[in-house]
Amino acid sequence: QALRASCGGEVGAGSAEEFLWSLAAVRSRTFSLGVKEFPQLLGGRCEEVAMVPFVDFANHDTHLPACDGLIRESADGLALEIACARACRAGEQVFISYGTKPSAELLLGWGFVPADNPHSAVELEFTLDRATAADPDRISLCLLAAQAAPRSCELLRIPGATEPGPLAVRILLTEAQPLPAPLLSLSRLEKLRPAELVALRAYLGDVEINRRLVAGEPLIFEARGKDEDRSEQDSDELQQKRAFFAQMEARAVGDLVGIFKALLAGYPTTLEEDQRKLADGFGQGEPPIIM
Known about the structure:
Largest sheet: 3 strands, antiparallel
């Protein structure tokens, strides 16, 4: 209704179906224009999107590198150029990369599913309720863990003075990395209460805890060198701490198992049923369209 009003009423706005068709057409054919590749066209703006005739005819190749720098403006700024990443024969189809996108995003945004997509992934979004602006040390550790693998972890919300909510992230789970390091490290950090996190940092030290977060290794107390002198009381205390953080590890892993079960329960069919449907075809005996 707001769109119709802004367009002058019923005559200019069209129907809801026409709006959705137009939105899909625009979103599936626009290109991001960065200032590095389009300095003259952007005229000082940092980034813009545009519909580019003819270039949108190019199909997506999942095995091509991202097109950063390959689609650019000409020297005089009056035309758009596509630089070939490899030699092409006359008459050969020209492909570009839409980016390292999972199949679900390609289906939603462009209407196709590649037969072989090395970037296929399951997107997992969640918030870390303990990672708020009130706990800047935890935020720093979470950011370190998340940024260690930027391709598999996207920061959706970073708490701060103008953002009171907790840290929110999107994790990509792939066949090659079903449990990426950021997912494991962030899950472990979320289970630690403030006092427990302080105790762990005091025992491991910042260098070691940072290394473990980047590598996705467990955040647990470990026995120190055999030659180190310590009293029997200290040894008992250490054993209690090790047992406690082992329980934290089990709880973190248990939470992940619960998340994965909930994700699977949200699908109306099982993987085996989907595979049978793919093999048998859809509808009236027609095979699914897969590019």
